[in-house]
Write a structure and sequence with these properties.
The protein is an alpha/beta fold. It contains 23 helices and 13 strands. It has a domain at 308-496: von Willebrand factor, type A domain (Rossmann fold). Strand 12, helix 23 (481-489) and strand 13 (494-496) form a beta-alpha-beta unit.
Length: 497
């Protein structure tokens, strides 16, 4: 109740309101703290900026409070207040506070913040260095090349990737940065190769096109994924032939990725038949021109492949499954006992009266999907409430004995309090070989290291940079915008019901 009152009172002006919010920012109740943090942005005078910066500097600040506080400070527009903010954060010494300050400076985009960010980019703490580099990438300044180039020597993959992407932005006007991108494309490190491929695609470095084509034959599937994605980004006619050649060599998700790239590049829908694509290319290739991005194509949805066999397009809650290395992550918190109104294809939160529940719908659909898997599919299951439950230690082949074991595991699940989303997704992403995750939940995170949805998504995306896992999301609560953002950022689909 007090948290709700703070949200209401925080909309009004006055020193009394500001004093209340600043006091409640130090309340021991995290819900009250989070409510005050979300409202303090409306009351940021010089005093409030100093107090909030001191609070940011604490290592003990919870995610539920740090996230809204960063959001509030990131909306400052008054140059005088921004200047005071930079002065105050320069006094922070705790790494968690410096990482927050780096993220806020990146959101503000103020040129005067560059000096602090350059300094923090060399910080020994990995989080501080990473977020400083990420924020520096927001600036269009070729003089940053040296900072980004230094980052490539890091032992931490996310710092390396951020450095290479930063160099890519400099490459258009800096010959040395361009040469470094070419070196990274040929690096022994798969992390450098795929980051360099992203740098080429994101910055339209057409001169590196032959190197992207070479990466289609890379031994690391993540690098090939980057090559496919960025050949689509550069959108040139010469990419079509190599992609057609690659179509017959890929399986699972990457096979579908090649089809998607070809359809988007050509405006044609010729399915997964290599012969059809070859025939069309031999007939029309010499006169073909890549259509504009805005051009509409007469597309049809490709048939789903579950393993080696083509089937009619079905999937989990209508999301097609193209991967043969997949993990399902399902919410089994108490709210999943709410009923589903199948006739309306919607979910009623907190409803009663029996019938099919959200958990029934989730598990029944999952049992059907598992039953459809061919033996060349490898899969796993992760369930969560206040704890994370993993069906198998690693991805398992979908042979009959494993499918039966998995179905028994699904059917015995019971619900409990809390929603531990971050840890469950992290568990799925850390499984060797996985290239696709389907996350189903009906709410926001309530426990774990990250409970602020924005912070949680940011950390998941950070970890996924070197993994390139596609994450599909199914929102049975129907109102979780963070799930849409997560799916879009990883190339997945999202469904809200």
């Amino acid at each position: 109740m007090r948290a709700l009152l703070i949200r209401i009172v925080g909309r009004f002006e006055g020193t009394e309101v500001q004093t209340l919010l600043l006091r409640e920012l130090r309340n021991s109740n995290k819900l009250i703290q989070a409510a005050a943090a979300a409202q303090i942005g409306n009351h940021l005078d010089l005093r409030a900026i100093r107090d909030t910066c001191q609070l940011l500097g604490r290592n003990t600040l919870l995610s539920a409070v740090r996230g809204p506080l960063e959001d509030s400070l990131s909306k400052m527009t008054d140059p005088a207040r921004v200047k005071v903010f930079m002065k105050e954060v320069s006094r922070i010494r705790k790494p968690s506070g410096l990482a927050s300050a780096a993220r806020i400076l990146g959101a503000l985009g103020h040129e005067d913040g560059q000096s602090l960010l350059r300094k923090w980019a060399r910080h020994r703490d990995i989080d501080v260095s990473y977020y400083a580099l990420e924020s520096l990438r927001q600036f269009d300044d070729p003089s940053l090349r040296g900072v980004f180039e230094m980052a490539i020597g890091s032992r931490h993959s996310d710092v390396v990737i951020s450095g290479i992407l930063g160099l890519g932005k400099c490459a258009a006007s800096d010959a040395q940065a361009s040469r470094k991108i070419f070196q990274c494309l040929a690096s022994k490190s798969p992390v450098q190769r795929m980051a360099a491929a992203d740098a080429v695609g994101q910055n339209d470095l057409i001169e590196a096109f032959p190197d992207l084509v070479d990466l289609l034959e890379d031994s690391d599937w993540r690098v090939r994924s980057a090559a496919i994605e960025n050949l689509l980004r550069v959108r040139i006619r010469e990419a079509v032939g190599p992609l057609i050649e690659r179509l017959g060599k890929e399986t699972g998700r990457l096979h579908h990725d090649v089809i998607h790239a070809l359809e988007e590049l050509t405006g044609k829908s010729l399915g997964d038949s290599v012969a059809n694509w070859h025939s069309w290319w031999q007939r029309d290739g010499k006169t073909f021109r890549v259509p504009s991005r805005s051009a509409k194509r007469n597309s049809r949805r490709s048939p789903k492949k579950i393993g080696g066999e083509e089937k009619s397009e079905v999937g989990y809650f209508g999301i097609p499954i193209h991967s043969d290395r997949i993990v399902f992550v399902l919410d089994v918190s108490n709210s999943m006992r709410a009923p589903v109104d199948g006739s309306q294809a919607t979910v009623t939160r907190g409803g009663s009266g029996g019938g099919t529940t959200r958990l029934d719908a989730a598990t029944q659909n999952l049992v059907e999907v598992i039953g459809d898997f061919d033996s060349d599919v490898h899969f796993n299951l992760v369930f969560f409430h206040s704890k994370v439950f993993r069906w198998n230690a690693k991805l398992a082949p979908a042979i009959e004995v494993n499918k039966n074991r998995a179905i028994r595991f699904v059917k015995k699940q019971t619900t409990a309090l809390e929603t531990l989303i971050y840890d469950s997704v992290q568990t799925a992403m850390e499984m060797p070989g996985v290239d696709t995750v389907i996350l189903l939940t009906d709410g926001a995170p309530t426990t774990g290291e990250f409970t602020h949805p924005g912070e949680m998504v940011r950390e998941i995306l950070r970890q996924n940079r070197s993994r390139r896992i596609q994450i599909h999301t199914i929102d049975l609560g129907g109102s979780q915008q963070w799930m849409t953002r997560l799916a879009k950022a990883t190339g997945g689909r999202t469904l809200a019901r």
